[in-house]
Specification:
Length: 505
């Protein structure tokens, strides 16, 4: 007896438009599909259900599980409410889903229609459904973004977690949230601003002092990072920061995923919440930060640390500082963690350099093999999708020519022609937009491949010429190929080194 999988998905984004909850909708869909499978005598052996956006495969564990099961070749079809439930993501990801289903002879079964991807017309129709679904998602997202931008400009709190010193609450009689002061935490916030601005204490010193006073942080203990986050957040002035960490799409493990990047050019609005600090406190902290960040330095001094701005402690994440204990008696340079109390032992700079060079060489060897393998001819999902779109465009243009002939021969009335032509024009425009988008993706993919390959000769140059490079030259070149490196020497003298190559996003 044939085996089938059932897949149900709903996005929480839909709650802005539906009167019922996502969970209720999914339950209703499950009942419909259960009845459908019972009537059609479909043997469903596993049900996969998730509440996520359909835009990214990386964020859809149940879909990834479904593709894993389909790849075994043991399933005759996937039952879902409609094709759009399978993918609203990029053309590349939609093509990937299609490829898995098609190569494993797995049908898409909905209450309205069964799609056999071995059939050319069904395959083309599915491609178009995926494409139109993607554009529908873009429209929804644009509407949501407009709504969130408007809410932020009105001073509403848009974050998922309230900053220290505040608690979120639902605004009465309208959509959205604001912030309410947490009195005890607010006192700590004021103390932090005074410690830095008036008393001249540094970030680490403030964190140690708070921990010594047994003042609880939201999570764990106070750290340099948590203090910096408070002292640089305009929310305590009664402001709302918007688009400080915008979402950026990246390819991760072969799939489209989302990440957040820090944006210094963010928007600032007057919030509906009360401030915790005064303008005077804020300006005092800003002045102190500017003074510390622009302390006078000897411009004639040559850079001696090849890993300046790159090397951090593998235990606490603090900067590893290059030091020379005694230039006369012990001129050997060492790296030490700058966090007081961290148990990372000091490490000879030579040992760190050699370890990082070895790690980079090992990575380069593996990466070169990987790149060479990736260069082998394979199915290009973007090119495949582009070919499909262009084929559909050709068909629609032929249909346009045909309806013109039908009008001339009197088969079509002017009204019939007008309606049919308008429909065709709309579809053609959608396909042309899709074609342009695919061409853009193709260009970006080509550019990324070039950038991906370029890191190989650059890294080779560094490793081969390393002995003759100055520390400043090493630092400049390391920053080209490496985002950061972490090092940790335990109390048992076990050295752990990790490198993070600067691969294109």
């Amino acid at each position: 007896m044939d085996r089938y999988l059932m897949y149900l998905r709903k996005s929480r984004l839909d709650t802005d438009y539906d009167e019922v909850s996502v969970e209720e909708t999914l339950s209703r869909h499950r009942q419909i599909l259960d009845r459908f499978c019972k009537d059609k005598k479909l043997n469903v052996v596993e049900v996969l259900e998730e509440v996520v956006s359909g835009e990214s495969l990386a964020a859809r564990p149940k879909m990834l599980r479904l593709l894993e099961l389909v790849s075994t070749g043991m399933y005759a079809g996937v039952v879902c409410m409609d094709i759009e439930r399978l993918s609203r993501g990029s053309s590349m990801e939609a093509g990937y889903i299609m490829q898995i289903l098609q190569t494993n002879y797995c049908k898409i079964i909905t209450p309205g229609k069964t799609y056999d991807l071995q059939n050319e017309s069904d395959e083309q129709f599915t491609d178009m459904k995926f494409m139109f679904s993607r554009y529908e998602l873009k429209t929804i997202n644009k509407r949501l973004v407009r709504g969130r931008n408007q809410s932020a400009s009105e001073g509403k709190f848009m974050g998922s977690m309230a900053p220290y010193g505040y608690r979120p609450y639902k605004l009465a009689g309208q959509k959205g949230n604001s912030l309410r002061i947490e009195p005890e935490e607010a006192k700590v916030v004021q103390m932090i601003f005074d410690m830095y601005g008036k008393q001249g204490m540094g970030y680490n010193a403030i964190a140690y002092a708070l921990n010594d006073m047994h003042i609880p942080a939201r999570k764990g203990e106070w750290s340099q990072t948590s203090i910096v986050n408070i002292l640089t957040n305009e929310v305590y002035l009664g402001k709302i920061r918007w688009r400080r960490e915008p979402v950026k799409k990246v390819v991760k493990d072969g799939f489209l995923a989302k990440t957040r990047i820090l944006n210094d050019d963010y928007e600032l609005y007057d919030g509906l919440h009360e401030p915790i600090i005064t303008e005077e406190q804020w300006k005092m902290v800003k002045a102190a930060q500017k003074k510390r960040n622009h302390a006078s330095v000897n411009t004639d001094r040559q850079l001696q640390n090849p890993f300046a701005g790159i090397l951090v402690c593998g235990k606490c994440g603090a900067i590893m500082k290059r030091t020379v204990p005694d230039k006369r008696r012990n001129p050997t340079p060492w790296f030490r963690c700058t966090t007081r109390g961290c148990d990372c032992k000091i490490i000879k700079c030579e040992v760190v350099e050699n370890s990082i060079r070895d790690a980079m060489q090992e990575w380069l060897d593996e990466y070169t093999i990987q790149i060479e393998a990736d260069q082998q001819p394979k199915v290009d999902p973007i090119a495949t999708a582009l070919e499909a779109v262009r084929g559909q465009l050709t068909q629609l243009q032929l249909q346009q020519e045909n309806i013109c002939e039908y009008l001339e021969k009197g088969v079509y009335t002017i009204d019939m022609f007008t309606k049919r032509n308008a429909s065709l024009v709309k579809e053609i425009h959608q396909l042309q937009s899709a074609e342009a988008d695919l061409l853009r993706q193709q260009n970006e993919s080509s550019q990324k491949k070039q950038e991906t390959i370029q890191i190989i000769p650059t890294t080779q140059h560094i490793l081969e010429s390393y002995p003759i490079l100055s520390p400043a030259e090493k630092n400049r070149l390391w920053k080209l190929v490496m985002k950061k490196a972490t090092v940790y020497r335990s109390q048992d003298d076990i050295l752990t080194v990790n490198i993070y190559p600067n691969l294109p996003k």
